[in-house]
Amino acid sequence: MYSIDDNEVIEIVGKEKLEGELIPQGSKNGALPLIAASIVFDYPVKLYNIPNIEDVNILLSILKYINCKIKFENNELSIDCSNLDKYEIPWELASKMRASFDLLGPIVFKFSKARIPFPGGCLIGNRKVDIHLYAAKQLGFEVEINKGDVFISNFNKSKINKVINFWIPSVGATKNVVFLAAFAANIINDEILVNNIAVEPEVIKLFDFLISNGFNLEYSIEKKYLKIKPFKLKNYNYYEDFNILDRIEAGTYILAALATKGRIFVKENSYFKDYFKLYLTLNSLLNVLKQIGFKVEIYNDGIYCGYEGDNLKLDGDLKSIDIETGYYPEFPTDLQPQIVALALSINGISTIKEKVFDDRFIYVNELRRLGADIDVIDNKIAIVKGGRELSGAKVIATDIRGGAAILIASLIANNTSVISNIYQIKRGYENLINKFSNLKAKIKLRFNKENEVYGYKY
Q1: Dist. CA 357–CA 376, nearest whole Å
Q2: Distances, alpha carbon 417 to alpha carbons 17, 260, 366, 444, 454, in Å
């Protein structure tokens, strides 16, 4: 833990009803693997709808370090890695974000070896990389861990296991195994099967992106398997693709609007195939909102969420929440903190169980600063006693999604709240102040006054 040294804070005056339209940003979790994957090609790649957020900019800094040419403006990103010349990533950059580990597979595919520090990012529990390393060993690589670095090298085709079974559908391991298996499949000229893969929309978008560039992949969303076959990369002069919309950002704003007793219309575009439509990727959230008693309507151009008949129902008409997180298509762990914040606004006792990460409730102490009554059992279950008045306070963003939950709770609290360590929130949310302001929130970014905020970074 480190002492606070923020230069900026977010100031929020609570008790304002959020209303209006939202145009979602490009997906953070979709952009990062597409950017990482682009290093395997010897031709330029242009990606549209890339959010200008901290995690993207950190990853681009890493790409520049390994000698990629980058141009990023107006959410359009051009990447040319034809002169890529490094297989190692410095700790100073990798420690800032977990998605730095997305480069493991692509770098191995390119150089047959990689040295990657253990990833940084959000401290939301024991986010192991054991499945990544298991996959590398199963695919014929030696794995060495030394002084916080993972070194993958010394490929031996005689040690390849052509059937790999994940014990959980890890998103990160699925993103890496496709490159490790592709390298191996081309060497042995045979198919490799991976079972129990992650099927999040961001992962499927990566598969489609790779297929368009020559990878020979077959996957089943229902049966959760991936087959990787021998192939040759395309020989494009350049390649263009679109990043999908950010379902977690959209869900965050929906939950913020409903927590403030407001309403929101989230706009949707039509050029993605059905699997990437927001109303489908957010299906687990929208079903929960209907069960609570909110009005949810799906249109060709977006999603409406509010109260029945556009009139505020009596608090007693809204049901408390009883959910648990899981792997897609179950309720996403990345919306768990935000729905806990929503539960604070609903009379009654809500129960939210976390089944993916083992310490994701780190943000709860900050909600308690605002007056929230929440019990956490074994770091796995939050018992939220909703309907109580919250009061503005000085609070600290603990991580990306926990920071979003703290912001939502500040929106429903009396008086003014000040959120520090906002770097964490900015890692995942683009133009956050403007978007909340457009929804009529009283929110602003300002410089931190000397000695104003005390506490620690998480």
Answers
A1: 14
A2: 16, 15, 11, 11, 14
Q: How far apart are CA 147 and CA 59, in angstroms?
A: 22
**Could you give phi then psi for residue 208, rounded to 5 degrees?**
-65, -40
Active site residues: 122
CA–CA separation, 368 vs 342, rounded Å?
Answer: 14
Whether the CA torsion 440, 446, 450, 451 is positive or negative: it is: positive
Please say whether the beta carbons of 182 and 215 come within 8 A: yes
**Domains and their CATH numbers in the chain:** 2-25+245-457 (3.65.10.10), 87-229 (3.65.10.10)
Residues in the chain: 458
Question: DSSP letter string over 345-374?
Answer: TSSEEEEEE--S-SSGGGGHHHHHHTT--E
The two three-digit tokens of residue 200, written as one number:
């999040």
Rounded-to-integer distance, Cα 219 and Cα 204, Å: 9
Of 453, 427, 437, 410, give the one whose Cα is nearest residue 15. 410
Q: Residue 30: phi, psi to the nearest 5?
A: -90, -40
Q: Is the peptide bond before 329 cis (omega within 30 degrees of 0)?
A: yes
* pLDDT tens for the chain, residues 1 to 458: 333 446 899 999 999 999 999 999 999 999 999 999 999 999 999 999 999 999 999 999 999 999 999 999 999 999 999 999 999 998 888 877 767 889 999 999 999 999 998 875 444 444 468 999 999 999 999 999 988 899 999 999 999 999 999 999 999 999 999 999 999 999 999 999 999 999 999 999 999 999 999 999 999 999 999 999 999 999 999 999 999 999 999 999 999 999 999 999 999 976 677 889 999 999 999 999 999 999 999 998 999 999 865 455 555 589 999 999 999 999 999 999 999 999 999 999 999 999 998 889 999 999 999 999 999 999 999 999 999 999 999 999 999 999 999 999 999 999 999 999 999 999 999 999 999 999 999 999 998 875 555 444 44
Sign of the dihedral defined by the CA atoms of residues 124, 128, 129, 131, in that order: negative
